[in-house]
Amino acid sequence: MRKKRLSIAAAAALLLGLTACGDNGGSSDEIAIGAVHPLSGPLAGVGGMMNDGAELAVDDINAAGGIKSIHGAKLTLMDGDSEGSAAVGQTEARRLVSDGAVALIGTYQSDVTENVAAMAERSDVPLVIDVAIDDKILSHGYKYVFRIQPNASTMGASGAEVLSQIGKATGQDVTKVSYMHIEGAFGESTYQAFRKEAEKQGIQVVRNVSYPATNFSDATTAVTQALSGDPDVLVVSGYYPDNLLIAEAVKAINPNIKAVFGIASGAYDDTSFPSDGGAAANGVLSANYHYSATSKRAQDIRKRFQEKYGRPMETAAMLSYQAVEVIAAGLEKSGSNDPVALQNAIANIRIDDTLLEFKGPIEFDDKGENKNATVIVTQVQKGRIEQVFPEEFATSDLIFPARDH
Amino acid sequence: MSKTTNFSPEQTSAHPPLLKRRQTRIILATIAVAVLLVAGVYLLGGQPTRLVNQALISGVLLGGVYALVSLGLTLIFGVLHIVNFAQGAMLTLSMYTVFMLSTQAGLNPYLAAVLTIPIMFAFGWAFQAGIMNRVMGDTSHERPLLVTLGLSLLIINGLLMAFGGRPAAVESPLAGSISLFGTLVDRPRLIACLGALVVGALLTLVLRKTPLGLAIRAVAANDTGAALVGVNVKRIYAMTFGLGAVCVAVAGGLMAPFTSLIPTAGEQFTTLAFVIVVLGGLGSIPGALVGGLIVGLVQTVGSLYLPGGGSLLLVFVLFLLVLFLRPQGLFGAKQ
Amino acid sequence: MVKILIFAIMAVGWNIMSGYGGMFSFGHAAFFGIGAYSVAYLLSAHGLNPWFGMLFGAMLAAIVGTVFAFLCLRYKLEGSYFALATFAFAQMFFLLTENLEFLNRTEGINIPILQDDSWLMMQFHPTSYNYYWIGLFLLVAAVAVSIWFVHSRPGRFTTAIRDDEVAAESLGIAVLRHRLITVALSCAITAIAGGFYTQYYMFVGPNQGFGMQVSVDAIVPAVIGGVGTIWGPLIGAVVVGGLSETIADLVRNPPAGLEFLQGLSGLDVAIYAILLIIIVVFLPKGIYGTIRERLRK
């Protein structure tokens, strides 16, 4: 356990740091939140969008009167560019903290988040993870790190659960699946959790194919390998380009399977997937955390995002928006801009009106995971991403078997 | 260094055979080893035959794509002796050019690829004439390397500023696949593979039959000597880089239809292209083709046994072995 | 600042092998990664003190580097071939780490976080100046070693071999042995930089240890500052670090009239790339090397 004396000392040191930095957002009527995302490099597209999401949240909160318990203090967003690299991400996070950020959000990539989390913990500044899936980040017993989205093993397990429910609901046999996942912690832990839960549900994994994260420019062989077990459904976990290749290879091979089912797939619930994938995208299912298409508030935010930034707001950006809201709620609750008090407030927070389709309010367990984070199933139908399962979140009817031959 | 390239002066005779006898022997030996290995995979590999078929076909197609990217590099590396780090970025640049021409001007992507050729030639020529020629000449390797590295950063981030990082796609009118022995042959990939052969053949023709080719080979073999007999070496450098960029343009054009276009899309090919060029022999066109094929096959067939990046490790082990045992590469001239 | 120090130590290490030794390495990530992973693994799995971990990493890197260089020299790899061999070597380490269970594969290794500052375990509050002092100390030591080396007998022999191998050999200098000494020293210094990296960032993964970017990071400061000079790598590191920092700041808060450039992703790196090209093209011997040459004239 962290000694209290020590945290007071640390807070004092930090406050000294703040006053030393003077004009950079240290004054009490402006509270700075640091955002670390990949604003350049291969992930610049999604990183920039997430930063925009956070910016929109800050603007909305300020427009609604700022943090009322701190005399209507306004929020400012300081952005840091991780360039997709863990070392740069941490350096940026250090800069933001020494420039007076009371909390951080970020960072999209698991290894960068791991680095920033270690820094945040050592500096006693809360980090609210918007996107980063690896279980390991919160396995060190960090106190200052929180995650809104479900972690990899939760996603794998709930993926298996909803897949089995879909089979039962539609009266289709789903007993054999093949699993394709990207190499690395994310793919591996999602797969392991999926297999464990699938076995409980009476689903057998007949083939498991892992493919490399780099130099993967043709999926035909890997897909053929996965299909050689004659599965009912092909389950896929990975990022955008590789998952797109897999969907296209499935379309080309045209096997006798009922569906392509993504779990935490970077492509299958992305709004550019239906047009990029064309016919290959049609009917593809995806179990993933997802912005709430049934919430009026989320719809309004998405509409304004589109107007302001000229592109659709994907789930990742909604999570950044949500992360800023969590911090704002924490500030509201603690009534001060002290990071240590903020940590305590966020650890005990409860946010009911979530912007994502979760099974309950946002509440953090003692590891810092959101207790009610879960996945829902979307499907590509007529060139659009529709929420199809569970029924309470559905915007359209589930089509299963999902492939026409 | 210059002695190790494949543009040896004896090839300048009036009617050189397409392949020399020694090269034929190497090709035969390579094929024999490959056949043995493939037979081993079929008989002892414990994988379904159809899967091995597919792995072989995909491997050949992938190898064709690699060869296509490596052709430009073998020329640049073989003649100018510079490690061109911007190879992948130039590839991306040509893909985005094709993307622009086909979506903005509504051109057929293959027609757009043809239009990309003069653009990339001018780009390559200007880069070499304007910048690279200033940092060459001494024996240091680090300056040209850093300049190409800078160019690569510049292209990637320039594209990022212009197009953003969201993946873009080029629609091919010929998308789809044909089936062959129960396996799938993706049509755009097949076209790219054939493209590699055509580019290889054309490049050989240019080098063998034109005055420009003669000058390039002279510079590659001995630049001081070439300068003495009146060749404008710097001009030849620029032309060579331009030609290399043309190969990259064709590669980009043919690959755009099956690539998720992001500003770093070409990067993964830079490393492998170097492996292939050294494997095949500096400046050797058949070397780049065979090298590409070998790497493609090792990667695809290897992935049946080694999950994830394990098959890439195989590629690098092979690379080091070749470097140690036959540093001039499979088709390189003896030192 | 600490990042600049790490770059500088790496560049000093690289400069010994490639600047003074004339063996162009494009794979110093291999040795940096060995240092970084030695500290991370020994500390997290066996609780070994990071100072010892650093020493161990340096020794391991020196041994690995020597064996590899021996192979390269034995098979007479030179110039671009040598550079590509070192490059492939680093890539192999990268792929190997990604596939080794005890190094946590692609996930990398976290340093256990302490609650108190500790000199013994080299861990402090992230904004502490102690990291800076340690880095500075290591850098001064590295520079001292390289000054000593350049003026020692083996060092002079090494530069003689670089300038004319045949002449050196005919004078009875043991070419292979001196080259290997140079490589070992260079690798050890680079590994120290890696070990310090792990302690400062509290995490290392395959990309941070063995990625291609790391090899580039070792080369750029040395070339910008001046290859084969004592002070070149230092000046280069300060210029490169300062430059990228200034540009990033400028893009974050652009001057009046250029506000539309704010937050345009990629701009800072693009400007940096242009400046890099300009420096390399117009200062052939690097900043320090060129100035020194002018002064001598």
UniProtKB/TrEMBL annotation, chain A:
The lineage of its organism: Bacteria, Bacillati, Actinomycetota, Actinomycetes, Micrococcales. This is ABC transporter substrate-binding protein. It comes from the Bacteria. Residues 1-22 form the signal peptide. Pfam families: Peripla_BP_6. Belongs to the leucine-binding protein family. InterPro entries: BCAA_transport (IPR051010), Leu-bd (IPR028081), Leu_Ile_Val-bd (IPR000709), Peripla_BP_I (IPR028082). Residues 30-383 form the Leucine-binding protein domain. Keywords: Amino-acid transport, Signal, Transport.
